[in-house]
Amino acid sequence: MSGPVKAPAAHQVLAILGHLGRQAAPVPAAAVARELGLPRSTTYQLLATLAESGFVVHLADERRYSLGVAAYELATGYARQAPLQRVARVPLARLVDRTGHTAHLAVMHGHEVIYLIEERAPGRPPLVTDVGVRLPAHLTASGRAMLAALPAAQIRALFPQPEAFVTRHETGPRSLSALRRLLVETRRRGHAVEDGEVTPGFVSIAVAVLDHMRHPVASVAVTMPRPELDPDLREVVVAEVGRTARAIAARISGHTHPPASAPAQTPRDRRGRAAGAP
To answer: Where is this region: Disordered (predicted)?
Structure first.
């Protein structure tokens, strides 16, 4: 539950739109007011104004509210302008340089992920996670990283039936309870892992890109052949994927990213040090 919104009307309007956009179904005005800590009278007034301008639809028979056509037009404008890809491409390229392995940026779409960027490392083979490819979110590290940041109710709505738990290679969670256990472990670690469930012999590590409301807008992942994933490389990848996700989040929010701690050593750094390089 979010804390009380102590901001001008414009911020309250944005909070309402953001809240409606995160719901799996239309919600009552009272629920919006409660979750955002707004007075009911203010909530009703703002919802009425948003409905007049088409950003919100009032479903009178159900006494609930949902996003309107104007909000959809904003979303399609976002897709046309592709700002997420623009702000993420350079950090993702740096991630590839630091790890020596292919990196991806993905977003959630229902219970699937869509890959927006693939930065292939030099000499690495092509992967199934090419740009525009959709995969089941519960099978991928990218999807698990984002699912772990969602409320339990939204996860239930995304996976209402056992049939939603498809597999590619007869591995992966096959029930809501199994997925919940996996997401608990993902939250505990601070990053998501997928091992051979998308492509046998390959491991992916991912971290969600969170907006200012701690909502997952995307995820950053690195994929590597399992035989190459020794403990040293795993430590490097986890650190660099997390740093990249935070850098992209800072670019999206417009806030200055706080100085990072000393970067993790890359495989090239370790080889140079072993050879006596400074």
So the answer is: 250-278
